[in-house]
Amino acid sequence: MERREFLSGLAAISLAARGGNHIMQSTKQPESRGEMPYRTLGATGEKVSCIGLGGFHLGQSHLEEPDAIKLFQSAIDRGINFSDNSWDYNQGESEKRVGKALKGYRDKVFVMTKFDGRTKDSALKQLDQSLQRLDVDHLDLWQFHENIRLEDPDRFFAEGGAAEAMLEAKQKGKVRYFGFTGHKDPSVHLRMLQLADKHKFKFDTAQMPINVMDAHFRSFGREVVPVLMQKQIALLGMKSMGSGNILKSKTVTPIECLHYALSQPTSVVITGIDSKQILDQAFEAARTFANVSKADIGAILEKTTSAAEDGRFEPFKTTPIFDSTAAHPEWLGYNPQTS
């Protein structure tokens, strides 16, 4: 096969992963705020920055709290409005720091956090803790975290499960929108979407790995994204660099990783930022993305084909080391060994 034909085929794969929605060469000028382009969050109509600020890195011990707060507020001042977080990140430190950083900024930020409870009671308890740490009276988006086991969707929709917590939280005005996340296998996401249809439950967002390796291996992009686009559920991309593992392949640069994730129909690409240098890198990727072509994306895919084929640079799919709820079953609200 000629190289040109090969690149054309890879570009076709990329388009298929996007459900046929070509976003790179739109005839409309993208909306921007400050230095950051904005996109629409699925059927919600909300406008969100195409880059989201990952919450995990903001709570790590190597980053001092004042520096984390300054970094967060600098990102908002420059145009990012999407804040990612989770109840379990750094034993709650990430939410506490973001809560302090939100002082005077709440109206400028789309606040998201996640929960681990599989039962209604445990999920609602975690929600109240998150609201207290973040020092807000409601969340813009609340997501079911680590949908990674085949039984997780069934637990979510079981009697007394977390789906009931979401509906109650929204009824009480504590949550505006619902979502779920996961990093393990596309089949688990598809099971969640299947059960949501069965129970007439509407998810607004779904979060998953969207990266240059995923395109080739156990692909969320190929298997799940077209279903999301059909249902108008907003795609939240994460692990664009695979928590640094993809960069270890020495096949792509950080900017190429972000460009690829932005080339998919992502409403937001969430990336970990723990320094001004990394923040600048994210803005550079967003700024230069307008010049990325289908051929560029095809070339990125070609470079990563061999490295991606066995999943070794996506260990969150192939090993348990990223499965925080497996390491902490007490977060689930039930004993997985007895019930």
Summed up:
With 339 residues, this protein is of the alpha/beta class. 42% of the residues lie in helices and 15% in strands. The strands form 2 sheets. The protein has an 8-stranded parallel β-barrel, surrounded by 5 helices. Strands 1-2-3 form a 3-stranded antiparallel beta sheet, covered by helices on one side.
Q: Could you characterize the architecture of this molecule?
A:
- The chain is α/β, with parallel strands linked by helices and 339 residues long.
- Helix content is 42%, strand content 15%.
- It contains 15 helices and eleven strands.
- The protein has helices at 3-17, 55-58, 65-78, 93-101, 120-134, 152-157, 162-171, 186-198, 220-223, 225-231, 254-263, 276-288, 294-308, 315-318, 324-327, and strands at 32-33, 36-40, 47-49, 51-54, 82-83, 110-115, 139-144, 175-181, 205-209, 234-238, 266-272.
- It has an eight-stranded parallel beta barrel, surrounded by five helices.
- The longest helix is centred in the first third of the chain and has 15 residues, at 3-17.
- The protein starts with a helix and ends in a 12-residue tail after the last helix.
- Mean pLDDT is 92; it is low at 1-28.
